[in-house]
Amino acid sequence: RREPLSLVNLKKKNEETGEEEIASRLDHCKAKATRHIFLIRHSQYNLDGRADKDRTLTPLGREQAELTGHRLASLGLKFDQIIHSSMTRATETTEIISKHLPGVKKISTDLLREGAPIEPDPPVSHWKPEAVQYYEDGARIEAAFRNFIHRADAKQEEDSYEIFVCHANVIRYIVCRALQFPPEGWLRLSLNNGSITHLVIRPNGRVALRALGDTGFMPPDKITRT
């Protein structure tokens, strides 16, 4: 419901002429800029931690975050913000990445926390969360998609470049939804730690995937998927 025509009151008429000024009102609602969304999966972390606060980055994970930060900085883009999951591993990854992007503001959100977005089809044997988890996490992750993945606001004049540091399940689900693929297929995508996924959202609402889970900037011995 971000198509300009859906944002215009077609019944409203000009008081002087009595004619609808649809064209001018449509122009006022149309996006002008392109949004570049960089979805970063957190780096490798301690799988033995029982609580979230104990699931900190491993030494290798910290190296991966440094490599990811260096790669993002090397693109020479003017990043507008870094929005990250409030979970420990995503927060720590963000802190390391942000050192390579001084001055870029950081925003934490619970919407991007890891979870079970939707029951995969076909099902898998190695990962079977409780059914209630899909209802709890799915609504939140869908809310994250609707809140963050959309065309630029009509008031935005220049193209924007935004970084989102979160989790594999969240990124995979967002990619499927953004490309209008069946979201039940999200588990068929695989993402390395510290990888970069690049979505482009044009003013007309069309979405393109420029990179999925890119870690080509890392040496082979630094690449993990845990």
List keywords for this structure.
226 residues, alpha/beta, Rossmann fold, 2 domains, 6 strands
Overall CATH architecture of the largest domain: 3-Layer(aba) Sandwich
User: End-to-end distance, in Å?
Assistant: 37 Å
Uncertain regions: pLDDT < 50 for 5+ in a row? none
Overall average pLDDT: 92
Strand order of the largest sheet: 3-2-4-1-5-6
Q: How much beta, percentage-wise?
A: 15-25%
**For this entry, what is the oligomeric state of its chains?**
single chain
Question: Strand-and-helix sequence, N→C?
Answer: HEHEHEHEHEE
CATH superfamily of the largest domain: Phosphoglycerate mutase-like
Task: Give the secondary structure arrangement, pairings included.
Elements: H1 22-29, E1 35-41, H2 59-74, E2 81-85, H3 88-98, E3 105-109, H4 131-148, E4 160-166, H5 168-178, E5 196-201, E6 207-214
Parallel strand pairs: 1-4, 2-3, 2-4
Antiparallel strand pairs: 1-5, 5-6
Helix pairs in contact: 2-3
Characterization of this structure:
Keywords: Hydrolase, Membrane, Mitochondrion, Mitochondrion outer membrane, Necrosis. Pfam families: His_Phos_1. Belongs to the phosphoglycerate mutase family. BPG-dependent PGAM subfamily. It is found in: Mitochondrion outer membrane. This is Serine/threonine-protein phosphatase PGAM5, mitochondrial. It is a single chain. With 226 residues, the chain is an alpha/beta fold. The chain has two domains: 1-30, no CATH class; 32-222, Rossmann fold, CATH 3.40.50. It contains five helices and six strands. It has helices at residues 22-29, 59-74, 88-98, 131-148, 168-178, and strands spanning 35-41, 81-85, 105-109, 160-166, 196-201, 207-214. It has a six-stranded mixed sheet, with helices on both faces. The longest helix is centred in the middle third of the chain and has 18 residues, at 131-148.
